[in-house]
Amino acid sequence: MSLPNSHQDMSADTATYVRRLLDNGMHGLQFEGELESEFERYHLNRYLHLNRVYPLLGALVLVFFIFADHLVIPDLFEQTLQIRAADALGVILVTLASRLAWVRHRYQMTLCLGALCIHLSLIAIAVKAAAIDQFHYQTGSILSVIFVCTVLRLQFHYIFPFALLMWLSQVLAMHFLMHLHASQFTELLFLHTFVTLISVLVCYRVEYETRKNFLQQLLLLYEQEELRAAHAELERLSLMDSLTQVANRRHFNKSLEAEWNRCLRDDKPLALLMVDVDFFKAYNDAYGHQRGDDCLMNVADCLTQTSRRAADLVARYGGEEFAVILPHADQAAAQRLAEQIVRQIYELNIENEGSPELKRLTVSVGFSALAPSQGDTPNTLISQADSALYMAKRKGKNRAHGFPANEASAAAESATSEGAGESDIHDESESNGEI
């Protein structure tokens, strides 16, 4: 059994409508709008196989009745043989034709028309049998009504008019074409009316339950989709800092571990920037915590805009401290980005009376890059970047400083970076964004 994909796009209003139908009960066999079209497709797909198999079984029953004809009405055997053979052949052809798309979409109507034709052929046999005083054939056409209403899985709005036509044709044939006594006519009229009514009611109830089952499963799938979306949102929120909308410490730790293992496997460098807002406590004291929150959000936005590659990750490390993970970035590339961050934060020109000299918001950045090895851990990189941040703070803030922190190494590193060409991170900028 297959359900439509409508639950993926079903609106909250439609879901409310479905719940109301299930809670209050359905009045009639008709949904509103697109939901009815979805049910039509669902019904067709669910019962198409059964509606191909059952008619073939019905054709087999028609063939078996040939033996009864030979025993009961041997004088009419050739005529009944032709009629029943034509009926069976018609059923087979209709079943084969259902493989065609234009027939498949009209298959319920086709089956109803076929059932009506078979019903009329059975009435024709009954008329011929009545002419030789074989009146028990009048009940044979009842089987066609029972079959089409209860065995086939057809919708009520197809079944009802054809069931009425079957009943009417039977009554007219008994009244005008057969020589029945009044008692026989009354008995057969009651029998055909009762069977037709019960069969139609069964058809109605079956479709009602089918529609109810459709709504229940559709709503279940919709609620499962909502649950998955809510779970995904909770997962996203659990990895995001609620204030700055960048990754939180938990996400940072998981991402750094993953990138470390990836760079270790690929033998690529990994860089880390530690960014700290200068004189942030003084800023909070001077402007209040609301302005302090705005300040952190501005810094987070600047870091996000500066770290443009898809693989880069900006995270709030804690308090006024941020971290930036740069996969496949060497020391020179990390230095360029760190200096760009310092410059762009400065150019935001956010007033900070707590800054003794510059009177504006600034940041200090410590950075480090290394090629992961089996002897190191991600904590090694964090420790190096943190040491570099400490040196940047110690040297006066509003600057970037790399690891190693001793002056000789820093000078050699600066000379190397000045003479270096495009780094590995720029080589990847064509696909991931340029730092």
Automatic annotation (TrEMBL):
GO terms (BP aspect): cell adhesion involved in single-species biofilm formation; negative regulation of bacterial-type flagellum-dependent cell motility
Bias kind Low complexity: ranges: 405-422
Keywords for this protein: Membrane, Transmembrane, Transmembrane helix
Gene3D superfamilies found in the cross-reference section: 3.30.70.270
Region feature Disordered, mapped onto this chain: 396-435
Molecular function, one GO term: diguanylate cyclase activity
Transmembrane segments: 53-73, 85-102, 109-129, 135-152, 159-182, 188-206
Catalysed conversion reaction: 2 GTP = 3',3'-c-di-GMP + 2 diphosphate
PANTHER family attached to this UniProt entry: DIGUANYLATE CYCLASE DGCM-RELATED (PTHR45138:SF9), REGULATORY COMPONENTS OF SENSORY TRANSDUCTION SYSTEM (PTHR45138)
Name of the molecule in the record: diguanylate cyclase
